[in-house]
Amino acid sequence: MSDGTQDPGCGHSLDELEDYLLTGHSPAEQHYQRCPECQAGLAGLRSLHRLTGDLAAADTEHAGSADEPWLQSILGNLRLEMRSGRSVPLSSEHPDDSFTETEGSLLALIRSTGDDVDGATIGKCRLHGDITEPGADVRIEVTVTAFYGHPLPSMIESLRSRIAHTVLNHSELNLTSVDVAVTDVHEHYLKSPKGEVNE
Fold first, then answer.
1. How far apart are CA 56 and CA 89, in angstroms?
2. What is the pTM (predicted TM-score) of this model?
């Protein structure tokens, strides 16, 4: 599914992570289990595997392949998100303590939240604003591939509300908006959706 090139972050590639997912074994297994960048990459690959499996189940003859441009675009964004990125400050009760979370960990969390919305697969996910400055305005930009048969207005509203809820619960960012753009509608209808978009 990936091209074997080295990815940003800790230096391990998506190709290595995919081999680990398929075989369950790797000399770097202990590293993968501890590394937040690799954990984010593994989570994204698992989501893609579920997606391509659903497509194959929906329409074996026309399910497509991992070489399709929209899937390659998702893989490209996963590579970018495997970087730790900027450090996001967290408050502390003790002035001598300094706590942060990484931009990459937040992007992985946003992607996981968005991919759980029926009929949606997150493409690009970006944080705009000075996330290193406490209290600064931050905007989230998300692009989505939607699937035929899922109402777009309710899907987009669900994405906005779920992502905002997740980010506000797991960070101290001053979130001003979640901008969702549907960049592609895939023609293959998933015959067995997980449930309603709005739960």
1. 43
2. 0.63
